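Quick one:
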Amino acid sequence: MWSKRCIFSISLMTAVLVSLSQSQNEADSIGSKTVELDEVVVKAALVKHDSRSDEYVLTSELCQGAASVYEVLSRLPGVVYNNIGNTVSVRMDRNVLIEVDGVQVPSEYLQALPLSRISRIQIVYAPSARYTTEGIRYVINVKLKNDFVGHDLYIGNYTMISAGDNNGSDIVANEQPKIQYIYSGEKFDVTAGYGYGTIHWNYPISYSRNYTGIASVNTADAGPKSPNDHNGTNSHAANIGIDWQIAPYHILSLRGMYHNDRINHESVYNAALKEFQNDSDTDYRETSIESSEADNISAAAYYQGVFHNGWSIYSALGYDRLRDNLRSAYSGLNVYSVNRHRNTKDYIRGELDLNYSFNDAMALNFGYRGIWNNYKTFNRDNNQLLSKYEDNRHNGYAFFDWSFANSLLLHIGTGVESIHNNSFNSKRDWLNFLPQTTVTWQPSENVQLMGEYTARMEYPSLYQVSASPAFIDQWLIQTGNPQLTPSRCQTVSLQATFFDALILGAEYVHSSNSITDWYEKSDGNRYLKTFTNARNREFRTVAAYEWTITKGLTWNNIIQWQWQEIAGHGLANHASNLSWNSNMEYWIKPIELLVKVEYSREMQKIPLLQGWQQFGQDLWQLSLRKTFINNSLSVSLNYVPPIHIGVRTAQKSCIETPSLNLSQNLNLRTYDNLLMLRIEWRFNKGRNKQRQVQQYEFDSEQKQDKGLL
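Output:
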């Protein structure tokens, strides 16, 4: 394994040295060798279509009343920005990567970027293999104007206030001050930022648990004025980046991020116990406490170069280190238990991506990606190793692009992924072929069509394989499953865009070993909640529509119908959902005030092998936004009214097995009368210059939570 890492490091340095030797005589000829697919420009060059993407020019109309690039994104067809969770989805798919001039940047950088420096926003619907092998479905590329040598400084604060007194004693539910600095030089660009967050969300939760032949537990209903599930988080996040233009069209980048999170979760229930064996009834107080202290460091080096002979090279070497100290405590009727564990993750990634342009119509893309991932769980009291999960992945791929017939593009190829998994009890190897085919056709200026087939691998996350146990009550324990296997996910999709305003799409997804919750009876009167692999099928249709009613008044809609089935262990279950996001904006030009009304129906019922659960939530929102001092200062106020028309006010789950039945109800009226105030100040000063484009990307570990915003 170490020899392969050394080989990759040598390849990275060789690419840099080759670029330096060739850079002196290639600067004038580079641009003409880049592949340019056929394009059609419509709407007086305000929207540009090619066979991979749509590109939007940032006009004054598109930017009016907006303070950040996120707010501009929310005005593009099929794009939804969730201002509470700070997430972006394209056609209701959250597997989205956002870049600036081909560079993935922290969210603080995007928030700091002045709109006056942005030229275009490109929505890439058919990204290259380097993205799709990691499960990225869409890439949003923010393109800058001729940039400048100078400084950008951003200072902002985001505050959530529970004005309706529905969040217990925590009137201030969320406080997130941030600062980001960007320096653009002749050869060097530097960015650095820091953000702090203190978050306090409290929910009313009630549950019912029935253990067949043993006991049943029911808790009293809890209302929004007296929540019994308390969640607190304190976070520190810092980022730094350096870009060095070592020669024209050759960029070397270094990126680093640090996250420190302190998370506390406490649930307190007034429970009523009925024991079947002795026919007794008992009332008692039940408390569950979970805490986490996590430190996550990520560092990476990137190189990208373009050569006069038609070659372009991208390479990366990154390291990610996570140390998470966990503590769980449970106290109930005659039961008290404390568990202390440590989860660790060490992640190394190496990548080499090559592109060769035969001519303006044909190009070849091939490369290699290696990942070495090591998860471990320790007992913090005696430092005993409880579980380990190692997977080494090697992915080689080759794809061919052919643009012909003026507006038709064929993208075809395959990846070959080798996986070696090693845990306490087993060693397993997989070899998977991951083919991909994309056909895009633009028969006219107003119609774009795309068909796509992709295959990719999905992997369990740290908490799903960690063996650290946690008591849910005196009978039920939760733990991860180190025996989980990777899943091969195949997707077939069709998409169409008409007149730059109407988007239609359909998608079918099949996963052979998707990961889902699993409940089983253990020894004696013990029950276990863990994870297992199962077959998953999903079908969804999406329609998005943008309507400019009058000047300054626009209406954006996106609606999705989804059907999902999961099967395994001799069981099968399915569910369907209708999701909808609709927003209407009105720009009052005389006073330069933006008024927005938004309705989002995003709660989804997810089938499990033994039941179902709900994630997400439904909301109405009213917002006002105004800018001052030549758009350098912006103030926005969002309000969640207690309107429950079309809003489901409870998030539920239900589990039914021969040995136990569980149900839970989480009251979402916590969000009634929620106020969100965002104040942002941007300062920039400098002179114009021409910038070069580069690319890099980060990997991040995602952990599933309650699914709330």
